[in-house]
Design goal:
Elements (H helix, E strand, L loop, with lengths): L2 H24 L1 E3 L12 E7 L16 E13 L2 E8 L3 H4 L16 H16 L11 E7 L37 E11 L6 E10 L17 E9 L6 E7 L7 E8 L26 E11 L4 E11 L16 E7 L19 E3 L5 E3 L11 E5 L23 E6 L23 E5 L1 H7 L17 E8 L6 E14 L3
Keywords: Kinase, Serine/threonine-protein kinase, Signal, Transferase
InterPro entries: DUF7705
GO molecular function: protein serine/threonine kinase activity
């Protein structure tokens, strides 16, 4: 056969493959209300939690720790120039609602934890966007402090009634009041002149500190003051929103978390025992969903910063039944990839209790953790089992019993070649400081291969993931700073399933 003929055949075959790939991409649709963060009219909210995902006590003059910045854009012509107004849907009175003035939301609620839930529902109703197949609400910024006063018996143990116990080093607490909510401040979204000629930027932010006696305006520069901020910015009519995150720990608040979440519009999101509201209209299911975003990490947060390239959360019972709010039998399930290259590898052949019982390769081959020649120990940071599981394979490692209202199961993985086929980083340092990237992660297919506990002789659960987020958890290390931006976020699901 002539060389020219072979070239023509290869060219035709390549074009066919290209067409096939294009049609494959067209088979996926966005599962979220704001695909790629490109909508001018923004919907964003912020929530804060203590160690066990409750409120406990509102911070002075802050109201319940739920706020929102939701607006539509009104385009109009003035003096032959195109102008815009931002029509805000949530005002300062809404954002400062708390248990003291609870009659605005629900006068029958006297419980601070349940009031925060109702306030989220109230803010969501003001921000709601009517859409198909269902309405959606907002991106959720999540704050959390790991401080826990063990003597106060504030957090249930694996969903059971809390009991006091002596303070332990794994739970930081400076004394009475260490589980306080942060101060929360807000720069409402507004328009400013852009750098480009004739361009307009939209910008807003949430910021604050857990140090109730601190000057928040000096939180970034003052030594030993905790601080957080999230600023969003977008050029009017172009591109994606960029969310700029900053988190700083202190000696009093050394364990802090900051995430940007896309939660389901209804149902139980990962880590919660009540209905939530969010951005995800179609809850993604393993193995058929992908997550796309651009991540640029400026500061990592120190060696104990568990920076999650992606964290997906769900909830199902050990027998495979869906969660129903019963905190003793519900189990939160997390799959998290940590990309901080300083992260220690706890799962080793000498410490198999820190590893999942099995690893399943992309081709379906399954190996046991005792198979020292084939089990990819370096692919895992740690695996821990739910505290209410009854049929665990020994040796095992229970998850923290207090940091969720119900028991939890956590799978933390690290960059490794076994995850490359799913689009995840294959070696430590990829995507880290100085290496900004746009990722398209086959999170659905990977999450289907991961081990999660289920009672013997029960039907394998369909794995739905109502919470997908990224950000960092700086674990018990004061004086650390993390800084990063997220843009172009999207969750893709098959158009027909």
């Amino acid at each position: 056969m002539e060389l020219r003929s072979i070239f023509c055949i290869v060219l035709v075959f390549s074009l066919l493959l290209s067409e096939l790939c294009t049609s494959c991409k067209e088979d996926y649709i966005s599962a979220i209300g704001d695909p790629g963060m490109k909508r001018d009219g923004l919907r964003v909210a912020i929530e804060s939690w203590n160690q066990c995902n409750e409120v406990g006590e509102e911070a002075p003059n802050m109201g319940s720790p739920r706020m929102a910045d939701c607006f539509d854009v009104n385009y109009f012509q003035s003096n032959e120039m195109k102008k815009v107004n931002l029509i805000h849907l949530v005002n300062e009175r809404d954002n400062r609602l708390g248990i003291i003035n609870s009659s605005v939301v629900d006068p029958t609620i006297g419980n601070i934890n349940r009031y925060a839930v109702k306030k989220e529902m109230y803010l969501a109703s003001k921000c709601q966007v009517q859409d198909d197949p269902r309405p959606w609400h907002f991106w959720m910024i999540m704050l959390k402090s790991g401080n826990m006063d063990t003597l106060a018996a504030a957090c249930p143990e694996n969903g059971k009634k809390p009991k006091p116990f002596f303070q332990e080093s794994r739970f930081p607490c400076f004394g009475l009041g260490c589980m306080n909510m942060p101060l929360m401040y807000h720069n409402y979204s507004s328009t400013v002149k852009g750098d480009k000629k004739g361009s307009t930027l939209m910008r807003g932010s949430f910021y604050g500190t857990w140090d109730l006696d601190a000057d928040v305006t000096k939180g970034v520069i003052k030594n030993d003051t905790s601080y957080y901020s999230v600023t969003w910015e977008k050029e009017l009519g172009k591109g994606s929103w960029t969310f700029h995150h900053f988190l700083k720990t202190s000696s009093k608040y050394p364990w802090l978390m900051l995430y940007l979440r896309s939660d389901a519009t209804t149902g139980f999101s990962g880590g919660y025992h009540y209905q939530t509201r969010g951005m995800t209209k179609i809850v993604p299911k393993s193995p058929n969903f992908k997550v796309r975003f651009t991540l640029d990490i400026k500061k990592g947060g120190g060696p104990r910063s568990q920076f999650y390239l992606l964290d997906i959360g769900s909830c199902w019972k050990n027998n495979g039944q869906p969660c129903d709010g019963n905190v003793t039998s519900d189990v939160t399930r997390y799959s998290e990839m940590i990309i901080n290259p300083e992260t220690k590898k706890w799962c080793t052949k000498e410490s198999i209790h820190q590893c999942p019982p099995y690893h399943t390769f992309a081709n379906g081959t399954r190996v046991h953790r005792t198979d020292v020649d084939n089990f990819p120990y370096d692919a895992y940071h740690v695996y821990c089992s739910p505290g209410n599981a009854e049929y665990l394979e020994e040796p095992y490692n229970f998850c923290d019993a207090y940091s969720n209202p119900q028991p939890q199961e956590i799978m933390q993985i690290l960059p490794h070649p076994v995850w490359g086929e799913f689009g995840y980083p294959t070696k430590m340092g990829e995507g880290w400081i100085g290496d900004p990237r746009t990722w398209e992660l086959d999170a659905g297919r990977l999450s289907q291969t991961l081990y999660f506990y289920q009672d013997p002789n029960t039907e394998p659960v369909e794995r739905f993931w109502p919470s997908i987020d990224l950000g960092t958890e700086i674990y018990v290390s004061g004086g650390q700073e993390a800084e990063w931006t997220v843009s172009n976020f999207d969750i893709l699901v098959p158009e027909k399933e």
